[in-house]
Every structure is written in C-alpha cells, then in structure tokens.
C-alpha cells in the first residue's frame, strides 16, 4: 500500500473559454491535512474535481491510493465504487448537493448507492445527524433549510459514507462564526481520527487550524508555492502575488501608511 | 465619525463622485403614485414554484398511512397499467364512469381529500381534452342527429367546396363522443395522479425500473425532478431582483421581453447546474440505477390489489363488448 493519497503530475485542464489548471503537480500524503489556497478562479475547485475523478485532466496524470484515475478505471464498477467509498467531496454550492426529498434520505443517498447494508445505513445516518446536531431536521426537505443548515446537511451526506479522504470546497463560506468554529473543530477531529482532509479556501484565517501544509495556486493557474502552513502564511510576497492578501491603509497618529493585509489574525484597524 | 453634510463628503478614493454621500431626505418621503401590481408572468412563475414546493416535492400524501401508500409500488404500477389499457379500450360512457368511481374511491381510501383530488384532475381536462374535442360536438364537423340548434340559416350555406348545411347544431353523436373522450382522459389522469401522489418519487422510479423502463429514461426523469425546483426558484429570484431595481409598473410587453431574456439565461444556468448536480450524485456513488432504502415486498394485499385491478380491467372491457 502506498503512503500517498494523491499524486498529481503536470496536470492541465482547460475549460472551453478559459484555463482551469496549467501544469500543476502535487502530492498529498495519507492522513495529511492540506489547505489549497488561491484567489477566485485560480483553479481550486477544478483541482478538487480532478482529485474526485469527476473531470479528467487534458494533460498530465492523477493517481489516488496508487491507482491512476482514467476514464477506463472510473468506468469500472468495482474500482469506481471503491474509489467513491474512499473519497468524499463536499461541494461549494450545497444546492447542487441536496437533491433528495428529505434530510434523512439525503444523508442515506451515499451509503445506499455505495452498497452498504440496510441496518448499517440506518446507523450511519442517525449517528451522522447526531454529530452534526441536525436530528430535528430529518424529515424536512433540504431546500427549505437555512444556508448554515444546508451546509451541515451537505457535510453529513458525505460523512455518512465515511470516506478516508475529505475534499472540502470553501466549507466556511457563508457560515456564521459559531457554525464556522464548529466546522473547524470537526475538521480537526476528523483529521485526528486518521482522515486526509483537503480544504480549498481563500479564508486564510482558518488555515492554521485546518491545515498543517498549504498549497497555493496562482492566478496564472499554476502552482505558486507549497510548504508548512505557518511558512506559507508568513510568506507575504507569495500571498500577495497569488492575490490572497491586499494592501491595507492604516493611520497611526494621523499618518497614513500602507502594508499588506491578510486576514490571518484579527487586529484593529483605524 | 462626526456627522457631516453629506453633500460635502468626498467619496473615498476610487469611487466615482456620484457614488458618495447620502441622498436628500425628500427622495424617501411619501410620494403619491400608482401602486405596483404583480405581473401575470411573475405571478405564474411564483405560483408554479410554490405549488411544486408544497405539492410535488413534499411527498406529504405519500407518507400518509392510506390504502395505496401501503402497497408495493410495483403492484400499484402494474394495476395502473391494466386499468389504463381498459380505459383506452372501453367505449361505453357508463363503464368509464364506473372506472372513474373506482379510482375516486381508491383516492378516498388513500386519505386524499376529494376536493384536492378532483381539483388536480379536472384542472387539466378542459385545457387538454375539452378544447380538442369541442369542435366535434357540432354538426358542421361531424354529421349527426341535432340535439340543440344554435343557428338556423334557413338555407344551405356553402363555404367554397364545403357545405355547412342549413343550421349549426350540437349533435347527439358528437356529444356522446366528446363525453367518452373527456371521461377517458379523466380516468387516465386520475389513475396517474393517484399513483404519483401515493408513491414516493424514489420508489416510483425503482418500480419503473422493475417494469423494464430503460435506465437512461429513468436517469433523465430523476435529473429533471432534481433540478426543476432549483430552476423555478432561480426564475422567481430573477423576477424579484428585477423588481427591486424597478420604479413604477412594467408593461406586459416589457414583462414578456424580460421573460424571453430570462429563458436564455436560465438555459445557460440550468446546463451548469445539471452538470454540478450530476457530479455531486456521481461523487456519492450514483451510477444511473435508482435505489431506495425501502425494500419491496409483494405481500398478500399487493397480489390482491394487482388481481383486483386486472379483474376490474377485464370486467370493464368484457361488459363494454357485451353492451356495445
């Protein structure tokens, strides 16, 4: 067995009218927690979709758990079921992910389609709802929920599969501070439980808690840098080039000056 | 920040001059004007969205403990098919009425309110069957014994090579034919509505699969179901967003123009959305095969239902042949 969850080599992906990724290589070890950083449109979502085998790169190769992801392997029912059981993807837009008629059925969808036993499915759905505190929503249609609730249901629908790898696309976007805090703790707990967590985000403030390593995608859709999360967050030049920080005006004693401003830590501005 | 005269406040750097400052207070003061009424187009979209949310998607009736809800979806689907065939073959209005009575009784036993059921069915019939069948009740279209004369010309009227006869009248044969067609449609629609109302969507799809409906057809059906709601919501939101930027009422012409433009936008969005929804389904193991947690068991009552439906269908066709 290989120690790497993913090996991506020189991957390029082009959309019809725009580039998605350009020659990106990266490796994610099993059990790692990694943040995929980049500005809007830098290719974070595209990379997650490639890692989940939902789209195939135009150039380059991608392997999961030592097996190459190709049209052939993904069309193989046995491989595809095993792969889907091991990798879970929480989409940025929960609307796309919630399509069942009740929250209960939504969470059961994954385990059911991945061929779990009837009783096991029921246990998993109940447990997942309990962890996320959404028991009271179980009979509600998912599209009637609030934004935060939708996000929790979307996460529950993936956690019920119990994948080894979690791909999270902007999980903290649009959450209130309490829910965001809950989510960050959950991600850390899941990682401690042995899961590989890859989070695409531009919310630098949550990176120290959700990642030990950070990978930065530039606006040119190429890899701008990678390294321990603390180092990457400290590299202001790298973050500024990737458009993840902006210059912010400060006034000290009536004098106005500019310095780069990331939202890594909250501090007062005047 | 100290209060300042808004007109003297310079906008922060980068903003155009017209964007700074507050408005003079008079703008917000009550100005008498026409009240804005919702347009027909907007009402329609909001109506459809609300109706779909409450009726189609909630599956409230399907989760009630009624007669048909307890039945195996496969037994229901087969029974429906048998009765549909009977309704299509029967030519006696009385027998069709009998089939309709049976269907309505089944709706009652399944705890569907009679008013709701009748409304669901008869709302469509004037549009789909009534309009088509209307011309055939007149002697101008189909000759027959006049029942009610509407216009007497007193002499033969010719329209080029066609003769309109000496009068326009509703005929007995035309009326019977129309009644049979409307009844047949009513029975068929009632049966389909009954099956759809008393069966959960995922179970219904699974039952269709058992009845050898091709997988690709079921896939298309389930995808349609899954994002039609999102699209309607999007359309309703687009109308609301437009209204928030509008002053005064819009003309029906403008509304229609906007609706036409929205359809284009929605088509693009629906394409993107369908790909996203499908990707999310695939990511969680979907491979085109509809699955449901509920296990199907054909028990005594299910066989009984299928047999009863088959017997009813056979009896209806037999009686029809005897009478006709």
Please describe what this structure looks like.
The complex is a heterodimer of chains A (270) and B (324). Chain A is globular and about 65 Å long. Chain A contains eleven helices and twelve strands. Chain A has helices at 44-51, 71-75, 77-86, 94-97, 103-113, 118-132, 147-159, 177-192, 207-210, 229-234, 236-241, and strands at residues 4-14, 19-29, 33-38, 59-64, 67-68, 87-90, 165-169, 196-201, 213-217, 223-228, 246-252, 255-261. The longest helix of chain A has 16 residues, at 177-192. Mean pLDDT of chain A is 87; it is low at 266-270. Chain A is α/β, with parallel strands linked by helices and 270 residues long. Chain B has helices at 40-56, 73-89, 93-109, 114-122, 125-133, 172-198, 201-210, 215-244, 252-283, 300-323; strands spanning 146-159, 162-171. Chain B has a two-stranded antiparallel sheet. In chain B, a hairpin with a 2-residue loop joins strand 1 (146-159) and strand 2 (162-171). The interface between A and B is medium-sized, with 36 and 29 residues.
How would you sum up this structure in a few lines?
The complex is a heterodimer of chains A (270) and B (324). Chain A has 270 residues and is α/β, with parallel strands linked by helices.
The helix content of chain A is 25-40%
| Tally of helical segments of chain B | 10
Strand runs of chain B, count: 2
Order of helices and strands of chain B: HHHHHEEHHHHH
By secondary-structure content and strand pairing, the structural class of chain B works out as: mainly alpha
User: In the residues of chain B, how many domains can be counted?
Assistant: 1
Helical fraction of chain B: 55-70%
Overall geometric form of chain A = globular
Order of helices and strands of chain A: EEEHEEHHEHHHHEHEHEEHHEE
């Amino acid at each position: 067995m290989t120690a790497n969850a993913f090996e991506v080599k020189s991957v390029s992906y082009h959309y019809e009218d725009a580039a998605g990724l350009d020659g990106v290589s990266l490796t994610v070890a099993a059990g790692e927690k990694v943040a995929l950083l980049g500005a809007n449109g830098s290719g974070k979502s595209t990379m997650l979709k490639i890692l989940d085998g939902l789209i195939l790169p135009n150039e380059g190769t991608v392997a999961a758990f030592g097996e190459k992801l190709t049209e052939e392997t993904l069309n193989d029912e046995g491989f595809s079921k095993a792969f889907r059981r091991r990798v879970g993807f929480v989409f940025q837009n929960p609307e796309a992910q919630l399509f069942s008629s009740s929250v209960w059925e939504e969470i059961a969808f994954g385990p059911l389609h991945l061929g779990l036993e009837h009783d096991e499915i029921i246990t998993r759905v109940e447990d997942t709802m309990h962890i996320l505190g959404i028991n009271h929503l179980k009979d509600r249609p998912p599209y009637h929920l609030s934004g935060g609730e939708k996000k929790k249901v979307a996460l529950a629908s993936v956690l019920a599969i119990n994948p080894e790898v979690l791909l999270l696309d902007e999980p903290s976007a649009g959450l209130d501070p309490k829910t965001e805090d809950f989510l960050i703790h959950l991600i850390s707990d899941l990682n401690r439980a042995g899961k590989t967590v890859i989070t695409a985000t531009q919310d630098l403030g949550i990176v120290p808690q959700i990642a030990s390593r950070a990978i930065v995608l530039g606006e040119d859709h190429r890899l701008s840098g990678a390294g321990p999360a603390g180092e990457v967050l400290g590299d202001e030049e790298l973050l500024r080039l990737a458009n993840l920080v902006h210059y912010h005006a400060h006034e000290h004693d009536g004098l106005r000056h500019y310095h780069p401003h990331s939202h890594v830590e909250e501090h007062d501005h005047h | 920040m100290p209060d300042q005269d808004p007109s003297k406040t310079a906008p922060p750097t980068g903003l155009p001059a017209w964007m700074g400052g507050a408005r003079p207070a008079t703008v917000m003061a009550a100005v008498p004007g026409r009240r804005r009424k919702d347009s027909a187009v907007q009402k329609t979209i909001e109506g459809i969205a609300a109706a779909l949310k409450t009726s189609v998607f909630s599956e409230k009736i399907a989760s009630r403990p009624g007669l048909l809800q307890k039945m195996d979806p496969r037994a229901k689907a087969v029974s429906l098919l048998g009765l549909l065939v009977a309704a299509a073959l029967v030519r006696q209005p009385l027998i069709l009425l009998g089939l309709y009575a049976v269907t309505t009784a089944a709706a009652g036993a399944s705890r569907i309110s009679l008013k709701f059921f009748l409304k669901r069915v008869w709302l469509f019939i004037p549009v789909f069957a009534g309009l088509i069948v209307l011309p055939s009740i007149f002697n101008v279209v189909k000759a027959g014994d006049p029942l009610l004369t509407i216009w007497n010309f007193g002499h033969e009227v010719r329209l080029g090579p066609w003769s309109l006869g000496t009068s326009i009248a509703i005929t007995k044969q035309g009326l019977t034919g129309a009644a049979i067609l409307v009844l047949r449609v009513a029975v068929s629609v009632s049966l389909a509505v009954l099956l759809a109302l008393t069966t959960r969507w995922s179970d219904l799809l699974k039952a269709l699969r058992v009845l050898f409906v091709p997988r690709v057809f079921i896939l298309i059906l389930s995808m349609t179901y899954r994002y039609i709601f999102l699209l309607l919501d999007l359309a309703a939101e687009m109308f609301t967003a437009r209204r928030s930027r509008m002053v005064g009422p819009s003309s029906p012409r403008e509304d229609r123009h906007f609706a036409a433009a929205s359809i284009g936008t929605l088509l693009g969005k629906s394409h993107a959305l369908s790909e996203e929804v499908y990707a999310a389904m695939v990511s969680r193991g979907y491979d085109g095969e509809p699955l449901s947690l509920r296990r199907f068991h054909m028990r005594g009552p299910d066989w009984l239902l299928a047999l009863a439906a088959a017997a009813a269908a056979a009896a209806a066709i037999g009686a029809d042949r005897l009478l006709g």
